[in-house]
UniProtKB/TrEMBL annotation:
Keywords: Oxidoreductase
Organism: Geoglobus acetivorans
Record-given protein name: NADPH-dependent F420 reductase
Transmembrane segments annotated in the record for this chain: none
An annotated Gene Ontology molecular function: coenzyme F420 binding
Domain named Pyrroline-5-carboxylate reductase catalytic N-terminal: residues: 2-102
InterPro entries: NAD(P)-bd_dom_sf (IPR036291), NpdG (IPR010185), P5C_Rdtase_cat_N (IPR028939), STEAP_metalloreductase (IPR051267)
Record's GO cellular component terms: plasma membrane
Length: 218
């Protein structure tokens, strides 16, 4: 299965690039710049090989990555994610699109959830990508820790979608990464709660001077 990281390795894309490759997926890194995409691919190929895997990650322009992928992950900062989805929607038609997007603002040093009028980033993406299956996942993963190959973790990932088949595929992708457990969180309406949790986790870590925090359901 080919998984494209649309927008390169921002957000949690860095951790996804090498961890999913090590789990056996074919990875395509997309970017607005072909040179940047290839450079990132070379970097992650070297990393994967150093970890004992086979480094054949591809670097492509975003539209090429979207067209070649079976599953696409939107790894662009939320401020630019929706316009990118609008531009790529014909390439993403009929495909699974994973949204780890969390719209946030900072007010007086506190991170706050800033959902669009649709109610969440996931719901807005599904409106834009009406002929794709949007699945919300990976929203609460601590990006920097996830990107560290030496990091050991046990985190849970809430996964929601209006397409049950697409949700099952994404839950399998999540579970393929050592240290992650996938939980079925129901329909896409649950994305309102899933996304809103992230700014609280960031604020908790900042106020209590801890490492980045993940989620564990017990």
């Amino acid at each position: 299965m080919k998984v494209a990281l649309i927008g390169g390795t921002g957000n949690i894309g860095e951790g996804l690039a090498f961890r999913l490759k090590l789990a056996g997926y074919d990875i395509i890194i997309g970017s607005r710049s072909e040179e940047k995409a290839r450079s990132k691919a070379e970097h992650f190929n070297s990393l994967v090989e150093s970890l004992g895997g086979k480094g054949n990650i591809e670097g492509r322009l975003n539209d090429e990555a979207a067209e070649l992928a079976d599953v696409a992950v939107i790894t662009i900062p939320w401020q630019h994610a929706f316009e990118t989805a609008e531009r790529l929607k014909s390439k993403l038609k009929g495909k699974i699109v994973i949204s780890p997007i969390v719209p946030m603002v900072v007010e007086n040093g506190i991170f706050k959830y800033a959902p669009p009028e649709e109610g969440s980033a996931g719901l807005k993406l599904q409106r834009i990508l009406a002929e794709s299956s949007v699945v919300v996942a990976f929203n609460n993963i601590p990006a920097k820790r996830f990107a560290n190959p030496a990091e050991k973790f046990e985190w849970d990932v809430a996964v929601c979608s209006d397409d049950d088949d697409a949700k099952r595929v994404v839950m399998e992708i999540v579970s393929s990464i050592k240290g992650l457990r996938a939980f079925d969180a129901g329909s896409l309406d649950s994305s309102r709660v899933i996304e809103a949790l992230t700014p609280m986790l960031i604020t908790l870590a900042k106020k209590n001077k801890t490492v980045e925090l993940g989620v564990r359901f017990v």
